[in-house]
Specification:
It is a single chain. Helix content is 46%, strand content 26%. The protein has four helices and four strands; from the N terminus they run H-E-H-E-E-H-H-E. A four-stranded antiparallel beta sheet has the order 2-3-1-4. A hairpin with a 6-residue loop joins strand 2 and strand 3. The termini are far apart.
Amino acid sequence: MKAIKIVLAFLIVQSSFQIVLAQEKGQMVRLAKLVIDSTQLDSYKIFLKEEIETSIQIEKGVLTLYAVSEKNKPTHITILEIYADTEAYKAHIQTPHFIKYKNGTKDMVKSLELIETMPLIPTMKIK
């Protein structure tokens, strides 16, 4: 029983340490929730695919951009965004490929909500 308590204590301390490290890294994690004009959904997806693929390929500070649509509402899109830090995000929104995406889709997006988040498991492996 004493060994179990020691192991549990160790795991708690280790988890706390990993959370602090993730916070010190300053990763920026958020959700972008969009509603797209249904008549322009296919065009929007083309812009989105190009922007995400380019960002992941050439921007070291863009750790994850993962887009999904709701099964029963394909015009409702959520993008999980993970950046190395706020500076990486600031650099990202100044890139030519992001500006092309933003300008090219501005009339397609009916609503946009940006939700700042706090990772619950900040030690997840990001490839």
